[in-house]
Specification:
Oligomer: single chain
Helix content: 25-40%
Low-confidence stretches: none
Mean pLDDT: 88
Distance between the termini: 67 Å
Shape: elongated
Number of domains: 2
CATH topology of the largest domain: N-terminal domain of TfIIb
Largest sheet: 3 strands, antiparallel
Order of helices and strands: HHEEE
CATH class of the largest domain: Mainly Beta
């Protein structure tokens, strides 16, 4: 072990940990982008109004896809934080 210095092991551990964190973040962001839109969500779950499919709550929260003021919104349950659907604004007419 004396041939392999301890600082190199520490740096390798830091890079590996950061890689794991970024990978988890990327998977979460991809799950958000893959969510169905509102109409597809309602149709797939045979609902007439939006509600959580995990806990059946009607309290929902929305947040921007990339930041708070983003027009593309992600809707999730306010109680159990289950990702439900996305809201994409209509494309501007030319």
């Amino acid at each position: 072990m004396s041939d392999f210095p301890l600082p190199i092991l520490f740096i390798m551990a830091v890079f590996f940990t950061m890689w794991l964190v970024l990978r988890k973040y990327h998977k979460l962001e991809q799950r958000k982008r893959d969510l169905p839109d509102l109409n597809a969500f309602l149709y797939a779950n045979k609902l007439t109004e939006p509600r959580c499919t995990a806990c059946n709550a009607v309290d929902l929260k929305d947040e921007g896809l990339t930041h708070g003021k983003d027009e593309r919104r992600i809707v999730s349950c306010a109680q159990c934080n289950t990702l439900l659907y996305r809201i994409t604004p209509p494309a501007p007419e030319a």
